[in-house]
Specification:
The complex is a heterodimer of chains A (182) and B (187).
Chain A: E1 13-17, E2 23-30, E3 34-40, E4 43-49, E5 55-61, E6 65-66, H1 70-77, E7 89-100, E8 103-112, E9 115-130, E10 136-147, E11 166-180
Antiparallel strand pairs in A: 1-4, 1-11, 2-3, 2-11, 3-6, 4-5, 5-7, 7-8, 8-9, 9-10, 10-11
Chain B: E1 2-7, H1 15-26, E2 32-35, H2 56-67, E3 70-74, H3 84-93, E4 106-112, H4 120-133, E5 136-137, E6 143-144, E7 151-152, E8 155-156, H5 159-177
Parallel strand pairs in B: 1-2, 1-3, 3-4, 4-5, 4-6
Antiparallel strand pairs in B: 7-8
The chains are: A mainly beta (182), B alpha/beta (187).
Chain lengths: 182, 187
């Protein structure tokens, strides 16, 4: 039986993220011991390999953050954290996409709270695969770790017995199902 | 721009209320600074009373903040922190939390004390509390020490401190002007 998935080089064409079957989120250590996960529900990502160098770019609406608690969400949107009123979007544009063995490596500029910094994200690309509707799909998983203070997300609270409420290193994850534009 | 001044001190001869009066003098038209006079009436926070409609004095506080483009708080320092009644008022103002009157509101904190440190710790604690409410806290402070000798008529006796106050008021108004008009003060 033939396998239905295989890792490939960057497929040609323009590919757009499926908002339902894709996830953009983050994880951060909370209260020293636990891992808190949050996600954004309103985002769009495009992989454009229609000519020249491939580019992966996307934007996330900050006010779509899903933190499962309205008070926490309110604090995340406030100037202490993302300042959604002043900077309503997180943006990413790649500067280089390559494969290293089985690994997908994406260099790019990540803009959070109005500050743009270079990051290197690593993960995988799978496909293209033809789905049951006859359309081609690609899967991309990427993650990178940033120090949130470099983007001005400085809030923290010391704990009575040492340590801080929220770790400064935050891992960003994207799990994308991208469909080829007709 | 309309700036609401809130003095954390209730007494009639308050140095911090005087500080806000000086601030009102340095606000140049068409901007204006009005000093809130209802702090004493705000009841102690009680979640049982945190209802819709809110207690009248609480609603006055929330409305005054909502109608202002920016807030300037002048705080004394009690036991290295901000006075209970001021903290209590900020707690009421922060409710219900997600859309509270302080959310994204530009706020600056200044302070006077009769000691030599000018309420600098109270100001820091007030900024921390305001950050937690979701306010747009302007990163400034104005310690006015030895408050009993700090005023000369409607000015601050120390010209440098007076200029610093004027600079803080300008920065606060600039923060208010930087907001999208439709998101600034409630009509």
């Amino acid at each position: 039986m033939a396998t239905v998935t295989e890792k490939t080089a960057i497929p040609t064409g323009v590919w757009k993220s499926d908002p339902v079957h894709s996830t953009v989120g983050f994880s951060v250590k909370h209260m020293v011991v636990a891992t808190f996960r949050g996600s954004f529900t309103d985002f769009g990502v495009t992989l454009d390999n229609s000519g020249g160098e491939p580019v992966l770019y996307g934007a996330v609406r900050v006010d779509s953050v899903d933190a499962r608690d309205e008070n926490l969400k309110g604090h995340l949107l406030a100037p202490d954290f993302f300042d959604a009123e002043k900077t309503p979007e997180i943006r990413f544009t790649s500067t280089d996409i390559r494969t290293e063995g089985d690994e997908l490596v994406v260099d790019g500029e990540l803009e959070i709270k109005g500050t743009s910094r270079p990051v290197v994200a690593r993960g995988t690309i799978v496909g293209p695969v033809e789905n049951i509707a006859g359309k081609e799909g690609v899967g991309i998983d990427l993650s990178t770790t940033v120090d949130r203070r470099e983007y001005g997300l400085n809030w923290n609270a010391p704990l009575p017995k040492g340590g801080f409420a929220v770790e400064n290193e935050v891992t960003l994850h994207v799990h994308l199902e991208l469909a080829k534009e007709e | 721009m309309r700036v609401l001044g809130i003095s954390g001190s209730l007494r009639s001869g308050s140095h911090n209320t005087n500080l806000l009066r000086v601030a009102a003098q340095v606000v140049s038209p068409p901007h204006e600074l009005e000093i809130f006079n209802g702090l004493r009436d705000v009841p102690p926070y009680d979640a049982d009373e945190d209802t819709d409609p809110a207690p009248e004095a609480v609603q006055r506080l929330r409305d005054a903040i909502a109608k202002a483009d920016a807030v300037l708080i002048a705080t004394p320092e009690y036991n290295s922190s901000l006075p209970g009644q001021l903290k209590n008022a900020l707690d009421w103002a922060s409710r219900p939390f997600p859309g509270n009157a302080l959310r994204n509101k530009p706020v600056a904190v200044i302070g006077a004390s009769t000691g030599m440190f000018g309420a600098v710790w109270a100001q820091a604690e007030a900024r921390k509390v305001l950050g937690a409410t979701g306010a747009r806290v302007v990163d400034v402070e104005l310690p006015v020490p030895h408050a009993e000798a700090a005023f000369a008529g409607d000015r601050l006796a120390d010209a440098n401190v007076h200029e610093n106050l004027a600079g803080i008021v300008s920065e606060l108004i600039a923060a208010a002007e930087a907001r999208p008009a439709e998101l600034s003060a409630a009509a």
